[in-house]
Here is the input.
Amino acid sequence: MTVDIDKTDGRGGTPPAGAEAIKAIPVRHYGRYVSAVVAIALLAAIVYAFSQGKINWGAIPDYLFDDRVLGGLGKTLLITVLSMLIGIVGGILLAVMRLSKNPVTSSIAWFYIWFFRGTPVLVQLVVWFNLGLVFEYINLGPVYRDEWSDFMTPFLTALLGLGLNEAAYMAEICRAGLLAVDEGQTEAAHALGMSHAKTLRRIVVPQAMRVIVPPTGNEVINMLKTTSLVSVVQYSELFRVAQDIGQTSGAPAEMLFLAAVWYLLLTSVFSVGQYYLERYYARGSTRQLPPTPWQKVRANMLSLGRPRGAAA
Amino acid sequence: MTGKTSKPGGTSAPGTTSKTDTPVNDTSTPMVKAEGVHKSYGAVEVLKGIDLEVKTGEVFCLIGPSGSGKSTFLRCINHLEKINAGRLYVDGELVGYRQKGDKLYELKDSEVALKRRDIGMVFQRFNLFPHMTALENVIEAPVQVRGVGKAEAKERARQLLERVGLADKAGNYPSQLSGGQQQRVAIARALAMDPKLMLFDEPTSALDPELVGDVLDVMRDLAESGMTMVVVTHEMGFAREVGDSLVFMDGGVVVESGNPRDVLTDPQHERTKAFLSKVL
Here is the structure.
């Protein structure tokens, strides 16, 4: 017995000559099987309950690719992308202003963030829509002049309302990212004679991205869903279209489920995009890039049936 | 010692106003000159009047216990830290300020940056840019600051990486390099700007003992090529062997200075003796 005690390091990979590879029976995790069964049973119960409800499920596939629905979907995407763009650009700008040594710019940024974070988006949207009470006309001299109500279309209201609000949140995310970069990086860049702006653009921001991207992906997904709020300012995006169809076709609840299906689908697609973006900005920070899901699947397939740890 | 291809200062001097500071601008101008330099952080006075001179082409070593202010002084030389009193000159020009009559004017950030181009700095913690490969680290400043073409910068960067013995690591990210290799890339990065002065802030303190030698070899090679170097170090062997001058600092003042071989073997002050008896 005692003779068999070999120092194989616990690693089964390549045992030294003469040592026998460990073939042990792995620990059984019975709890996992039990919890899986319980979870599946609960899910089945919920699905059954819904299938028995007074909902005409057949209406959903009928309208899933309806032209009006697809049009609303396009507008939802457009508003999401454009207002996130305003949010990100504005957020970076505000974060830099906030961290600036200039007390005027940092105060302005502070005030902006305080105001736009401190009031609900829904209220902001409605205020933008009704700002004609304050500014009757919009007058840009000879270039443009119009009544506020004509100028502030539902589209513009939605864009400004969501974009400017998002900028305040993005500013805080960007600021956290900028602060997370080691001060030695700025010093090294300055010591090489780089200006503040170049240091920020070439050295600090690329490293801050690693911290900024994950919560930004979160914000995109949030924004996609928040766009449903702009239905209150008469912008006919997915949610509003779904409601309209629901009222005329006599299947209001069904159309809400339809909207939910589309939102879920889009957020899933965005999550995949976020994964690859994070992977891109992780370069240099880890010795090896994390595998893509596809690479993971392949590695798992190859390692099936082989002893553990043997996967290359 | 003067075998260095010395720039007469004309090309790098951003303005002619500095001529009023020190009329002489020939080879006899010390590379660094400190006159009563004071520096405090709030109420804590870190430098209490430093006077010293670093001649062009020499290797100038700063030693002393931690907290003695040697790193702070080094960082004052390229204006990473602002001094509170006294005068500090690099190559005959005031650091961080411009003097007109008896009034001092703060330099703009862009003017400070212009002067930093000519001063290389190597940090204790390397501070390589982690999102760039070794080669990209080295070409960054020449391309972005000096406006050198990418192909030309790469060519030169390869030569520099070869000089520090890392020709085969050009494509590696810093996280894939050992500490000693990272520090050598950092030296190559500083050299890529063709500095007239190199500052080393405890370049081997964060390294495993067996990696220290490689970095010191590179520094020795650099010293032999005639580079003016100010080195904050705990490597007494390096100071004795390569150093031309040595200063022992403690509590924010220069306690003792002179030839490294003399100071290290026969220190005059009690404080120096006590320090050296612990580190040697």
